[in-house]
Amino acid sequence: MSTPHACGSNDTQWIEQEQNAVQHRMEQIRHKILVLSGKGGVGKSSVAANIAVGLALRGLRTGLVDIDIHGPSIPKILGLEGMLPEQDGESLLPVGYDGLLSVMSVGFLLQDRNNALIWRAPLKHGVIKQFLGDVAWGPRDWLVVDCPPGTGDEPISIVQLLKNPDGAIIVTTPQDVALEDVRKSITFCREVGIPIIGLVENMSGFACPHCGTVVNIFKKGGGEALAAEMQIPFLGSIPLDAAVAASGDSGEPVIQHAAESPSGRAFSALVDTLVRNIA
User: What is the residue range of 167's domain?
Assistant: First the structure.
C-alpha cells in the first residue's frame, strides 16, 4: 500500500481519479453504515464486529472496514492478527474472516503491532480514501465502518468520502460520563447530515454465568433515556457477560461462537432490527 499522496495545486486530475475510484467501489455496495461512539472504552469495535458477522451469518455479503488509525481493534477481535492483505494488480484484497466476511484495517499494515502511527489529518484522510477506493470490495450488501471514538479527523473523512451512508449507529454505556460524550456524537451526525439509525446501550448489566441473574454494575437504562430525550431510535441493550470477554481475547465473535449467551442473543436481535429498519 502506498503512502497517501500529498496533493498540490497541479494534482486536480489525480484527485478526480481517486474520487472516481472511491465512487466506483462504493456504488457496488447497497448499504453503508457507520458505528460511532462519543467515548473510548464503550465496546464500539466489539459492537461493529458482531454486527458485521451477524449480517454475514444471515447470508448477506458484508465488508468491515476499521478506520481507527491509532487504535485498530478489529484484527484482534476477529482473530486476524498478523494477516496481510494480498494485492491484485492495483487493488488490495480485503482479508477474509471464516469465509464469511471481508475485512480491512490499518492493523494489517503494521509490521509491529506496538508501532504508533503519528499521523496528521491529511495522511489519515489519504489512507481512509485508499481503504475505500483501492480495496477490491466487489459487490456487497453491507459495509460496516468502525470509526474511532469522538468527532475528529477520521469520522469527518469517512462522511466526506461516503457522501450518502445509510446512517450511523451510536454506542454508549449507561454511565453519565459516557452519555455526555454521546450527545456530541448525536450533534455531529446532525450537523454533517448523517441519519442516525439509533443508539445501542452496551455493557448494560452483568449477566451471571452461573445463575443468569443480571446485576446492573454500571446501572441501566441511561442509553434508552438519552435516546428518548434526543428523539432518536433505541436499538437495544447488550449485557456484559463472560462470553464477551472470552470472545474478545480468542478472536471468536460472541454472535457466532456463543450465540445462545445473553450477549449473543442481544446482538442477534440488534442485527435483526438493523436489517428490518434499513430494508
Answer: 32-67+140-278
- The CATH number of residue 193's host domain is 3.40.50.300
pLDDT at 8: 52
Grid coordinates of 157: 473523512
Write out the three cell numbers for 41.
472504552
Q: Which of 218, 151, 215 lies closest to 178 in space, CA to CA?
A: 218
Q: What's the DSSP call for residue 114? A: T
Helix, strand, or coil here: 250?
helix
In a domain, 192, yes or no: yes
Q: Are strands 214-215 and 196-207 parallel, antiparallel or unpaired?
A: antiparallel
pLDDT digits (tens, 9 = 90+) for 219-269: 678 899 999 999 999 999 998 888 877 887 789 999 999 999 889 999 999
Query: Does residue 77 lie within any of the structural domains?
Result: no
What does the alpha-carbon distance between residue 151 and residue 94 come to, in Å, rounded to a whole number? Answer: 26
pLDDT (tens digit per residue) in 44-55: 999 999 999 999
Q: How far apart are CA 203 and CA 172, in angstroms?
A: 8
Rounded-to-integer distance, Cα 152 and Cα 150, Å: 6
Model confidence pLDDT, tens digit, residues 154-169: 999 999 999 889 999 9
- Grid cell at residue 187: 450533534
Is 126 inside a domain boundary? no
Tell me if residue 72 falls in helix, strand or coil.
coil
How far apart are alpha carbons 105 and 66 in whole angstroms?
A: 5
- Residue 181 in any domain: the answer is yes
The count of domains in the chain is: 1
Provide long-range contacts, Cβ within 8 A and 24+ apart, for 258-267: 261/207, 262/207, 262/212, 262/214, 263/207, 263/238, 263/239, 266/236, 266/237, 266/238, 266/239, 267/47, 267/50, 267/51, 267/54, 267/238
Is residue 221 within 8 Å of 50, Cβ to Cβ?
no
